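Design job #97: recover the sequence.
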């Protein structure tokens, strides 16, 4: 499903991409736990899809949640967190 969602993003079908990624995120949280790095990546893809679909407030909220999860997973000095904080 993730590959199909990415294909939708490449074709600028942002709403379809998010529709595929949201259930995938929920399933992944059940399997891997809510703080798994792969889940954060999927959440970022949803935020990007929402941004391009015009749902800016939702995208910002979700991306902020991703930043907090990455702080917890990797720590505040990890390059992933530093890159996100500089945006």
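Job complete. Output follows.
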């Amino acid at each position: 499903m993730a590959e199909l969602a990415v294909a939708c993003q490449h074709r600028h079908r942002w709403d379809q991409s998010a529709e595929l990624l949201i259930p995938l995120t929920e399933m992944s949280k059940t399997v891997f736990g809510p703080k798994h790095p792969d889940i954060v990546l999927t959440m970022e893809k949803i935020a990007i899809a929402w941004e391009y679909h015009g749902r800016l407030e939702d995208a910002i909220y979700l991306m902020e949640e991703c930043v907090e999860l990455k702080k917890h997973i990797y720590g505040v000095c990890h390059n992933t967190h530093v890159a996100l904080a500089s945006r």
